[in-house]
Every structure is written in structure tokens, then in C-alpha cells.
């Protein structure tokens, strides 16, 4: 339902709604709703419009500070193998070359006008997707300037680096045999309100709800949805409730169907309820210690207690809704908040108050649960409700069980350098 049809209702009920409803996505939602989900721009050739065709929009202030440095200040820069980076760089340019709307309800994006000369040069370079590391490094050093990210106080920003991935589940389009656990498309009565349209001081905040008579109320919890006679549309039925739940935690994933085909379940929306940990629920119930609440142990508990599985799942009131996508290029992951498909080990989620979407970033951290350096060029293409603060990063490991194992162990310290067009001055957002 459009905002115009509900504006008169919102003026009466929105403040009460805010008191009861989350204004941010669940902590688990990483691959957020792309700003233009219908566009598969990564599958199209790069198109760089003339500079005059990119309108200037008001700048958006960034909370961090940036200090220019030389390439030699980036630890391990010469050792990063860039031989498979050009595809990601070109895809990122495809996102950069979209004019920004100026809407404060969307995450901050890198300024397209600043990047137009660099993306034009990349287009003219004509490199193949597998351009050599030395070739790519030479291009980047010729056109970009590294800036050390500092916090609001001006100190070099260091923060936590976690990981996420794209899981795989087994599923069927029909509810049959072991396939009993639904993954839903958004319900028809789900209402999303951009609060900045009503209250400018709340720009960028959204709430989800539904109309109940002449009132806007919080949308149903997971328990209410699961027990309702009126279910949201089901895309597929999974064969394992815990696997399906963890797919929701990641925000998207792939489904291997019982007919042998594979589809992607991409994040579409959620019910606006705050995320609660089922691991914490199990610990509070005395079923296992908090340290034991791995995915494997939770699955084993579910197998021993089939009659309590829904009770466990209902401990988390949040529910993610999906849309079906075809998998055209297996190398490409789900679309992040920038509408660009993520690429394993080259895409990250960041806090756009400090680093705008579409920005190449050099990240220095360590491999999961080790002291081995992990230093590489990545692209800021996603956001997450738990990803807050200068240099706070969520590293996308890619698809499958191995990526999931790395993501699950990833909790390191890291720092970053923003790579910005030389001619454009300090990094800026729109």
C-alpha cells in the first residue's frame, strides 16, 4: 500500500508503532534489500555516461576522517593477487555509474561524478575479466589515491571483522516427505514506511507493519505467522528447519531442488521484529551451554526433539522473506545493499556512515581464528544492522560449506584504507 494512502493514518499511529517495532533490520540480515532489486546490471556491459549526464546531488556527511597516504603504507599491498579482481572492479563501476536519487532513506553511496573519469578509463582499458595482477595494480595505482580511515577523533580506525556466506539448503516446490519447512515470499499486507518521508529527523529509518482497521501496528511475529491460517506465499519447502533458519540468518542462499535444479533465495524483506538468538534460548532452557550452541549441535537437538522445533524457532520473532532468482553466473553471489552481486572474498559489508557503498577498500585483518594476515582489496557493497562503527566490517566468504566454516570462525580485528579517485579530493558520499 502506498504511503499516500496511509499518510493520514500514520500521523495518528506512527509514534505508538515506533515504540513497539524495530526500526532497523535484524542483526542477522546482511545481504540487505538492494536499492534497485529488479536490475541485473552486473549481467550488462559497463556503460559510462558523460559527466554532464550525472546530476549533482547534495553531499552527505561522513562521520569518519580520511588521511591521504602512499601505496607503500598499505601492508601487504604488493602481495595481494589481483588477477581475479578486474571483474569485480568493472561490476562495481556499473553500480557507481547509476545516478543517485538523493534519497536519505537509502544508504550513502560513493559520488558517481567523482568516479566517472576512473570508470571511463576502465572501460577504455578493455581488460578481460582475468586481467593479470600487475596490469590491474598498475591501473589502480595510476587512478586511485589511498586514504587511511580514521575515527571521529582522528585516530586510525580499528574494529571487528566478522564473516558471512551464502548457504545451501535442500528444498522442494511442494510440501512432501521431508520437505516441511516453508521459506516465504513477502506477504501482501506487509507495509514498509520510510520514516524520513514523514519526519525528516528520522531520515534513513524504516519500520514494517500492517494496517489493522485504521491503525498501523507491528507486523506479526514468527510464531504468529507460523500459526496463522493465512500464510505468506511459499517459494520452497526445506527439508531441515535449522538449515532453513540459518539461511534466514545469512539473509539469502541457494536451494538445491528435488528435481536437480538450483535457485537462489534472495533477501526481499522482513517482518520488522528484532532478532533473538535461538542458541541463547537453548542455553536459558538448560538444553546446552551457550558455548555449545553451534549449528551442528542445534541440528542434533532438533533431531532429538522434533516436537519442540517450532517452539525453538519461535524464540526468534524475526522472519526474513525472500524472492526467487535464477543463478546465471555461479561465481556471483546474492546482491548486496548496492544491487551488485557479491563476489567471494572480494565483497564486504560496512557502515555507510563512514564508508559509502561502491567504494574500493583495502582491508588488513587476519584469517579466521588465526594470526595469519588477510590483506586484500575488497569492495564495500553491502550493509548489516550489526555492522556499526568506523572500520567495522563483515567479510563475504562466498558460497557453500567451506565458506560457511570460515565465516562462522571469523572474528578478528581489522583496519582499512579507502581507495578514491585521485582527482576527486577526499572521499565523499551522496
Give an overview in words:
With 430 residues, the chain is α+β, with helices and mostly antiparallel strands. It has a single domain (1-276, 316-430), classed as RlpA-like domain (Barwin-like endoglucanases, Beta Barrel). It is built from ten helices and 19 strands. It has helices spanning 3-20, 86-96, 112-125, 133-143, 222-227, 241-250, 278-284, 295-304, 309-314, 401-409; strands at 65-68, 144-150, 158-166, 168-172, 181-184, 191-194, 206-212, 215-218, 234-238, 253-257, 262-270, 320-325, 332-335, 341-343, 347-349, 360-366, 373-382, 393-399, 411-421.
- Integer-rounded radius of gyration: 22 Å
* CATH fold label: Barwin-like endoglucanases
What is the CATH domain class? Mainly Beta
Query: What portion of residues is helical?
Result: 10-25%
Order of strands side by side in the largest beta sheet? 3-18-15-17-16-19
Write down the domain tally. Answer: 1
Which structural category do the helix and sheet elements fall into? Answer: alpha+beta
Sheet having the most strands:
6 strands, mixed, barrel
Amino acid at each position: 500500500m502506498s504511503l499516500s494512502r496511509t499518510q493520514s493514518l500514520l500521523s495518528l499511529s506512527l509514534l505508538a508503532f515506533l515504540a513497539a517495532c524495530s526500526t532497523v533490520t535484524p542483526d542477522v540480515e546482511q545481504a540487505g534489500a538492494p536499492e534497485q532489486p529488479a536490475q541485473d546490471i552486473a549481467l550488462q556491459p559497463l556503460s559510462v555516461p558523460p559527466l554532464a549526464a550525472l546530476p549533482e546531488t547534495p553531499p552527505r556527511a561522513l562521520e569518519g576522517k580520511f588521511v591521504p597516504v602512499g601505496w607503500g603504507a598499505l601492508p601487504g599491498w604488493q602481495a595481494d593477487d589481483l588477477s581475479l579482481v578486474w571483474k569485480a572492479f568493472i561490476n562495481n563501476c556499473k553500480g557507481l555509474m547509476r545516478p543517485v536519487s538523493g534519497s536519505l532513506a537509502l544508504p550513502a553511496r560513493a559520488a558517481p561524478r567523482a568516479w566517472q573519469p576512473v570508470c571511463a578509463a576502465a572501460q577504455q582499458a578493455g581488460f578481460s575479466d582475468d586481467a593479470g595482477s600487475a596490469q590491474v595494480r598498475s591501473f589502480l595505482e595510476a587512478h586511485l589515491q589511498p586514504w587511511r580511515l580514521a575515527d571521529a577523533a582522528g585516530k586510525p580506525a580499528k574494529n571487528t571483522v566478522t564473516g558471512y556466506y551464502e548457504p545451501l539448503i535442500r528444498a522442494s516446490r511442494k510440501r512432501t516427505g521431508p520437505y516441511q519447512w516453508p521459506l516465504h515470499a513477502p506477504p501482501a499486507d506487509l507495509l514498509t514506511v520510510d520514516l524520513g518521508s514523514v519526519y525528516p529527523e528520522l531520515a534513513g529509518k524504516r519500520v514494517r507493519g500492517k494496517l489493522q482497521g485504521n491503525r498501523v501496528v507491528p507486523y506479526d511475529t514468527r510464531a504468529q505467522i507460523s500459526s496463522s491460517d493465512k500464510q505468506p506465499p511459499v517459494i520452497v519447502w526445506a527439508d531441515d528447519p535449522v538449515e532453513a533458519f540459518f539461511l534466514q540468518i545469512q539473509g539469502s542462499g541457494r536451494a538445491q531442488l528435488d528435481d536437480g535444479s538450483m535457485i537462489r533465495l534472495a533477501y526481499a524483506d522482513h517482518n520488522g521484529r528484532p532478532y533473538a538468538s535461538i542458541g541463547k534460548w537453548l542455553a536459558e532452557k538448560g538444553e546446552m551451554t551457550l558455548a555449545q550452541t553451534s549449528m551442528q549441535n542445534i541440528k542434533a537437538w532438533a533431531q532429538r526433539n522434533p516436537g519442540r522445533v517450532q517452539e525453538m524457532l519461535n524464540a526468534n520473532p524475526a522472519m526474513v522473506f525472500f524472492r526467487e532468482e535464477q543463478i546465471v553466473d555461479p561465481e556471483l553471489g546474492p546482491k548486496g545493499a548496492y544491487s551488485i552481486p557479491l563476489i567471494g572474498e572480494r565483497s564486504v559489508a560496512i557502515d555507510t556512515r563512514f564508508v559509502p557503498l561502491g567504494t574500493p577498500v583495502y582491508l588488513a585483518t587476519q584469517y579466521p581464528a588465526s594470526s595469519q594476515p588477510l590483506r586484500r582489496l575488497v569492495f564495500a557493497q553491502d550493509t548489516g544492522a550489526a555492522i556499526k562503527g568506523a572500520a567495522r566490517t563483515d567479510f563475504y566468504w562466498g558460497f557453500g560449506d567451506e565458506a560457511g566454516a570460515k565465516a562462522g570462525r571469523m572474528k578478528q580485528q581489522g583496519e582499512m584504507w579507502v581507495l578514491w579517485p585521485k582527482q576527486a579530493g577526499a572521499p565523499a558520499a551522496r
